[in-house]
Amino acid sequence: MALPTVAVIGASQTRPGDHDYQAGIRLGRLLAEAGCAVATGGYGGLMEAVSAGAAEVGDRIIGITAPEVFPGRSGANQYVTDERQAPTITERIQDLLTLADAVVALPGSLGTFTELVVAWNLAYVAPFSGRRPKLIVAVGPTWRELVPLLAHRLATDGNLVRCVDTVDEAAALVIAGLRSEEAADT
Predict the structure, then answer these.
(1) H runs (alpha helix) in the chain
(2) Which of 56, 94, 120, 158 has the fewest beta carbons under 10 Å from its own?
(3) Three-state SS for 134?
(4) What phi and psi, each to the nearest 5 degrees, are found at residue 166?
(5) In terms of Cα–Cα distance, which of 77, 38, 83 is closest to 61?
(6) Domain around 112
(7) How far apart are alpha carbons 69 and 168 in whole angstroms?
C-alpha cells in the first residue's frame, strides 16, 4: 500500500532559525515518523523546513515546483526526492492538492491563503460527487481568525478546516484522521 501523502503549505520567506521554520522541521519529522510522505511547493521557507524534517526519518519528499512561474528560483530544495514540475500556479496547486490525502496549512501569505481556500473549496464540493472531504488542518492565529470569519461571511462550512495552535496538534489530527480513513476503507 502506498504511503499516505500530506500536503503542507506555508510561507516561502521563512528563514532557518525562525520559530516557524523550526516548527516546520518538527511537522515534517512527525509526519514522516508516522509513515507519511510529505508534499510541498518544493522551494524554500516552510516548504524547505518541512522537507528537511521529513528527510530526517523518511524518504518520500515530493516538491511540486513551477519553474515558468518562478524563474528566479533554482529548483526544488535539497531535501526533495521527487520533483514534479507544473507549468502554471493553478496547475501547481491542483497537482499538490490532488496528490494529497490531507492538507496542513502553516503560517503564510497570499499564496498559502490561496492554496488553503482551494483545498477548502475542494473539501466542500467533494460530497457532491460522493467523495469524502480531505482533512484540512490550519496552524496558527491567522487561520484561527480568518477561517471562522470567511465561513460566516461566505456562508460555508468552517468545520472543514480544523484550526489549531501548534504543529504537534496538526500532526496528531492528521495522523489520527488518516488512520481512521484507512480503517474505514478496510
Answers:
(1) 19-33, 46-55, 89-99, 110-125, 141-153, 167-185
(2) 56
(3) coil
(4) -135, 160
(5) 38
(6) 5-185
(7) 33
